[in-house]
Automatic annotation (TrEMBL):
Taxonomic placement: Bacteria, Bacillati, Bacillota, Clostridia, Peptostreptococcales
Name listed for the protein in its UniProt record: 8-oxo-dGTP diphosphatase
A Pfam family this chain is assigned to: NUDIX
Species of provenance: Serpentinicella alkaliphila
Domain Nudix hydrolase: start-end pairs: 29-75
UniProt feature coiled coil, ranges: none
Amino acid sequence: MLVKIYELGEIEDNKLEFAAISALYMNKYVFVKHKKRETWEIPGGRREKGETICETGKRELQEETGAEEFEIEEICDYSVTIADKTTYGRLFYSNIYKLGELPDLEIGEVELFDSVPNKLTYPKIQPLLQKKAIEMCNKLKLKE
């Protein structure tokens, strides 16, 4: 598996299939657990037909965390190559100000962490994306 980071907009928009959101709430990292898994992941998911990638990021953050009030910023693009298949996504950073009820969809649990948890769904991808988001959040100067 190979994960690459690209400058924002370096990947053509029509190739961006996924949005991943590194999120903070009350100065803690937000991780979610899918109902069918025992591992943690950052919020995110697949782009739906007709959506912009920014709409995907906002929708996934709301669906997977219950976020009601938040700021969200684009960080960078990324690719994941497994065997001969490469998929592309966009990484976002979000400060969540208000969490509401978790929608009854795929996610069963939202948890706040001081650091990246050990049991990750995608351990070769998520720490790299989280690190990139942390590096960039200081430059974005989002409200905390």
